[in-house]
Amino acid sequence: MQTWMDEFVNNTDLSQNRPLRDVVCESLRRTLIEGKVPVGERFVEKEYSQRLNISRTPVREALKQLESEDLVEYIPRVGVVVKRICKEDVIEIYKIRLSLEVLVVNTAMECITQEEIDKISNLLDYTEKVNNEGNLEEVIQLFGEFNSIIYKSSKMKRLPAMISNLNNYLQRFRNISIEDDNRREKALSEHRLILNAIISKDKELAERIIKTHLEDSLEVVIKEID
C-alpha cells in the first residue's frame, strides 16, 4: 500500500551531482508544490532518511528552508507537517507580487535588448503552438521561461529570487489556474500585451495588464482555498 512518504521518496533523485541538502530540498519542495501530499500530513524525517539511506542532517537543513518558505511547519509534540495555505497570506502575497512585477517590468523597459525582445516574441509564438497542441506541462514551463527572461532583462539580480519564493507558496494553485483553457488563452494574450508595453515603454499600460493578470490568478486561488 502506497503512503504519502512514497511520494516524497519517489520524487527524490540522488543521482544528481549537487549538494545533498539542495537535492533533498528541491525534491521535497516539488512534491509539496505539486499538491501530492495533503495539508496536515506529517513528514517523518527518520523514515525518509532511512529509506534513501542518507544522513538526517541535510534533511533537517532542507526542512528548515521549506519552513522559511511556509511550505511546512513544525508543531510541538507532532513534528513537521504540510502547512495549510491561509487566504489572508495569499492576498498579501499577491499584493507584494504586483508591486515587484510592476517594478521589474518597468525596469526592464529601460535596459531590455532587441535580442531579448526577439527571444520573448519567439517564445510566445512557440508557447501558442504548444498550447494549441494541448501540451499543458510544457505551457506551464514556457510561462515560467517568459517571466525568467523579463526578470533577467531588468538586470535586478535579487528580484527573481524574491518573486520565486513567493511563487513557491502558491505554485500548486497557479498550476490549477493554468489548467483552465480560457484562463490559459487569456494569460498568453496578456503576456503579449506585456511585451508590447515593454517595447513601447508604456508603464501605465504595463501596470494595468499585470494587475488584471494577477487578479485573475488570485481569484482562481481563492476559489480553490475556499
From TrEMBL:
It comes from the Bacteria. SUPFAM superfamilies: GntR ligand-binding domain-like (SSF48008), Winged helix' DNA-binding domain (SSF46785). The keyword Lipid biosynthesis does not apply. Keywords: DNA-binding, Transcription, Transcription regulation. The keyword Transcription regulation applies. One of its GO terms (molecular function) is DNA-binding transcription factor activity. PANTHER family: GLUCONATE OPERON TRANSCRIPTIONAL REPRESSOR, TRANSCRIPTIONAL REGULATOR, GNTR FAMILY. This is GntR family transcriptional regulator. It comes from Romboutsia weinsteinii.
